[in-house]
Every structure is written in structure tokens, then in C-alpha cells.
TrEMBL record:
CDD domains: dTDP_HR_like_SDR_e. This is dTDP-4-dehydrorhamnose reductase. Its cofactor is Mg(2+). Catalyzes the reduction of dTDP-6-deoxy-L-lyxo-4-hexulose to yield dTDP-L-rhamnose. It comes from the Bacteria. It comes from Undibacterium curvum. Residues 1-304 form the RmlD-like substrate binding domain. Keywords: NADP, Oxidoreductase. Its EC number is 1.1.1.133.
Length: 311
């Protein structure tokens, strides 16, 4: 298939380009080719390219900055996916788009013990608590309203060995400091960009092999949660990062001591949900895909060559 892929400089876009590029023709749409903050130009540009499938991992992902840069966040996260969806409807092709746990307010089950937090299913009512979450939710709605053939995958706490993310920040801090204070009262599934790309690859294979792609879309289109399984806190994630990095020789000094702190001790411009758990039963059952737990995915990620390992 000819796949138009956005966000190729980002964590997920880069992983998708690597995996899907081995099986399909990828038209890599970077910011220069398709600037998502200029949504008026998007629909006609895509119609000219005439891909067989569009995949959109690009997004305005600066959660705190989105609180004040609302106009750009709205263009990139709402108007751009809306324009892509219009183009997909015109060309009668499918659109795969990614969304976030931040569409929820995170209050689900927070009166229960932290070890028994329930997970949000796809049908749970959204109520974003920050501008980023609000724009991502409106982006989902714009795609659904367009009636184009679509898959929307909601994910959470994405990391990779590339770009800006919590894993790389913690590896850097663990190599610089002797003591780290980490939030221990927000919970979710750390999710490797590689795992999201692998599941997407399997689903695109199923689509490509379908004898009637329109019928395939009719049967499978919709909204799915896609995260690594299990859950932890930022503190739990950091504990695992430091342990696993130490085992692989990725720390240049003794491991730092870790201290759990409440989110109220680490104020940020954007509010974050307490419970970010997403239930992944639907995607696993519908497409017969299995998703690794967050600990195995972290190990798999760290097993790849890491730039810090050489220093
Ligand atoms: N990161 C997370 O923790 C997280 C959590 C939940 C959901 N998600 C969702 O998962 C998806 C992938 O996230 P990610 O972490 O891979 O994102 P990322 O690493 O921040 O990459 C974002 C990508 O979007 C591109 N982009 C931003 N503004 C653009 C514009 N105006 N025109 C064209 N391209 C633009 C960036 O290009 P430049 O390099 O040119 O800026 C970059 O390639 C997104 O839908 C995100 O909302 C992420």
C-alpha cells in the first residue's frame, strides 16, 4: 500500500516509518511537506498525493505549553485531523489516528486502593482536564463526525529511545543526580512507541490482506485503547528504569536514591489525570493481537543500542 505517514520525526512516527517501511511504500509527510498548523492546505494536498491509507501520529504534544498556545494546539490536534478525515472521505481511503488517556479526567476508581484501580474502556464518558486533552478529544470527534473510514488508537505515557520523553529524562537525571523526587500518586501504563507501532503494523497487515477493504473498514473501524498492559505510577516507572538501566550498564555512576512525592509537590501549568489506565481488551480481542506488559516493553526498548551506553 502507499501510506501517507505524518510525524516521522516524532517517537511513534519514527517507529512506524521503520516497521511499515519494510512492507509498504511510505510517503513521509514532515512539517515541511504538510504543516499541520496550516489546516486549510491539508485536504487538497492529500487529495493530490492520493495515498491508499493515511496514518497520523503527528500531534501538538507539549501538554503544558498547550495551556497558553491554544490556537496552535487546536489547529494541529483538531483542524488538521478534521481536514485529513475530509480527504480520506473524498478518496474513500482509511485514516489511522492516535489519541490519549488525557481525554479522561482520571477520577475513575480513585476512591479505591491504588493496587485495584479500574481501567477506562472506550465507551467511558470523556472529560478532559487540560487544553491538550480537550483538543485531542475534539480531534477524535472531528474524525468520527466526518464518517470517513477510521481507526483511532488511544495511548498513554509514550516513550522511546528517540525524542523527548520521560524515559530519556530519567536516564539523564539518573546519570547526573544522586537523589530523584518522583510523583507517586498518578497512575498509568508506560507505553513503548515500538509496541504501538508493532500493533499498528499487525492491523495494517490485516487490512492489506483483506479481499474487500471497504468491508474490512465497515467491520473494524472505531476507537480502541492501545497501551502496554499493566500499570504503575511515575515513581514505579522510574524505579524500573533505574533498575533496568543499571543492569544494562546504562548508568555511569551509582544509582540515585528515589523518593515518592505527591503531584501537589510538583506543580505544572496543565493538570494531569490521577488514573490514566486504559482497558486494552477490545483491541486484543478484535484483532487477535497480544500486547506486552509495560515491564517487558521497557526491557525490549532498553535492549536496543542506547546513545548513553557509549558515554
Ligand atoms: N507522548 C506521550 O506521552 C503521548 C501520550 C498519549 C498519547 N500520545 C499521542 O500519541 C501520538 C504520538 O505521540 P509522540 O509522543 O510520538 O509525539 P512526538 O514525539 O511529540 O512527535 C510529534 C510529531 O508531530 C509533529 N508535528 C507537530 N506539529 C506539527 C506541525 N505543525 N506540522 C507537522 N508536524 C507536526 C512533530 O514534528 P516536528 O518534529 O517537526 O515538531 C513530530 O514529528 C500523538 O497523537 C500523541 O497525541 C502521546
Amino acid at each position: 500500500m502507499r501510506i501517507l505517514l505524518t510525524g516521522v520525526s516524532g517517537q511513534l512516527g519514527a517507529a512506524l516509518q521503520r516497521l511499515l517501511g519494510a512492507e509498504h511504500e511510505i510517503i513521509a509527510a514532515d512539517r515541511e511537506m504538510l504543516d499541520l498548523s496550516q489546516p486549510d492546505a491539508i485536504e487538497s494536498a492529500i487529495v493530490q498525493i492520493r495515498p491508499d491509507l493515511m496514518i497520523n501520529p503527528a500531534a501538538y504534544t507539549a501538554v503544558d505549553k498547550a495551556e497558553t498556545d491554544t490556537d496552535t494546539a487546536y489547529k494541529v490536534n483538531v483542524l488538521a485531523p478534521q481536514a485529513m478525515a475530509r480527504a480520506a472521505a473524498r478518496l474513500q481511503i482509511g485514516l489511522i489516528h492516535y489519541s490519549t488517556d488525557y481525554v479522561f479526567d482520571g477520577s475513575l476508581g480513585t476512591d479505591q486502593p491504588q493496587t485495584e484501580l479500574p481501567a477506562y474502556t472506550e465507551s467511558y464518558a470523556c472529560n478532559p482536564v487540560n487544553q491538550y486533552g480537550k483538543t485531542k478529544y475534539e480531534g477524535e470527534q472531528a474524525i468520527q463526525d466526518s464518517q470517513c473510514q477510521h481507526l483511532i488508537f488511544r495511548t498513554s505515557w509514550v516513550y522511546s529511545l528517540h525524542g523527548k520523553n520521560f524515559l530519556l529524562t530519567m536516564l539523564k537525571l539518573a546519570n547526573e543526580r544522586d537523589h530523584l523526587r518522583i510523583v507517586n500518586d498518578q497512575f498509568g501504563a508506560p507505553t513503548s512507541a515500538l509496541s504501538i507501532a508493532q500493533v499498528t503494523q499487525q492491523i495494517v497487515r490485516q487490512l492489506a490482506a483483506a479481499p474487500d477493504q471497504a468491508a474490512w473498514w465497515q467491520q473494524f473501524q472505531g476507537l480502541y485503547n492501545l497501551t502496554n498492559t499493566g500499570y504503575t505510577s511515575w515513581f514505579g516507572f522510574t524505579t524500573a528504569i533505574v533498575e533496568q538501566a543499571g543492569l544494562r550498564g546504562l548508568l555511569n555512576k551509582a544509582a540515585p536514591t528515589l523518593e515518592g512525592i505527591p503531584a501537589s509537590d510538583y506543580p505544572t501549568p496543565a493538570k494531569r489525570p490521577v488514573n490514566s489506565r486504559l482497558d486494552t481488551q477490545k483491541i486484543q480481542q478484535t484483532f487477535s493481537v497480544s500486547i506486552p506488559d509495560w515491564q517487558s516493553a521497557l526491557a525490549e526498548c532498553l535492549d536496543q543500542q542506547h546513545p548513553l551506553a557509549a558515554s
